[in-house]
Amino acid sequence: MHSKDTQNNAHELFTEMRESCPVAHSEEHGGFYALSRYQDVYDAAHKPETFSSFPVTIPPFGNPTPMIPIESDPPDHRNYRTLVGRQFSPKSVAANEPFMRKMVTKIIDGLVGATEADLAKEVAVPLPLRAILELYLGVPEKDWDMLKDQFLYMLQPDPEASDEDNQERSMEAGLNCTKYFAEMLEDRRVNGYGTDLISDLDQAEVDGERLEDDEIFGFCLVLVPAGFDTTASVLSRLLLMFAENPELRTQLEAIVDDPDKLDLAVEELVRYIPPQPGVARNVTEKCTFAGQEFDEGDRLLLLWPSANRDPEEFANPDEIVLDRQPNRHLGFGSGIHRCLGAHLARLELKVFLQEFLRRVPRYQVTPGQEALWHTGNTWGVKKLPVTFEAWSGN
Roughly what angle, to the nearest 10 degrees, separates helices 259-272 and 342-359? Predict the structure, then answer.
């Protein structure tokens, strides 16, 4: 998943895997099996007693304790997820729509009149980053870029570096972020709690016990990257698609004022360009699954993008069908670890499309330049230089 060749030829490779080797084995990163068919991926995601979520990446982040709650297994997982479920419920997220629209408007205002821009840096990253840091964690604006950089060190391996060097860099970044959140936590305890998640977590109890500091830091180490890197990856790829496929933009412009049709379109876009290439699972006991014998300790990779293009589940899976129904895509994962922030991501994407398509003129990738992709735990565009057509003055 960290290979540019794999990324560049992903769907050809996934098609071949589904048809001829649905449970493939790789010797990379210590060895693992990759599941490519929709039903196998779905079933594995719903068997946490057999397929543990710790560690959740291949290779692992390098953290000695699970990141909460994505690397937690039952029964702990339910207790942890309940602590933050209210903040990410449909009702709570919907209440943030005015804030989200104001934030999108501000980002677009910064582009108005420009002839060129880097839409990955200036649009795709700032929107979800500001939402999670300001809205949920109360991080001051002066620290946003620092945290963004540290988390990207954790999430996006250097393709030119060894696994060992990338793990070392990831661990160092994780320690830097943990130190930052430790200072925030101490500040809350000394100067008073706020309405942010760190304040909530420090006052929460599980089975009558307050959380340990490491558990609070574990939450933070998940919420920030999960809150911005995944959505930023979808946004960046969508922005590139608008340049490469103007017809898609035309289709979306035709429905952007119809909330119900736009909701369906957002689901289809997440199916077509899911942010994560896959998540890992660890086999807890000897078993037979998908026709393959597994031993305790074997590693699995659940390939969300491959599952989302499986013709056994989706008609015309390689086409974008904006009104696709039903659409049981796995772009937000599935099972007990289905994306906690799915409702937030939907709102961000919907508000973004409404405002961006209304105000921002068409554009092309700047001649002589090209989009630069990143690999790792998400697949997205980290550099998208574009040249705009004339602004209409809005």
Answer: 110
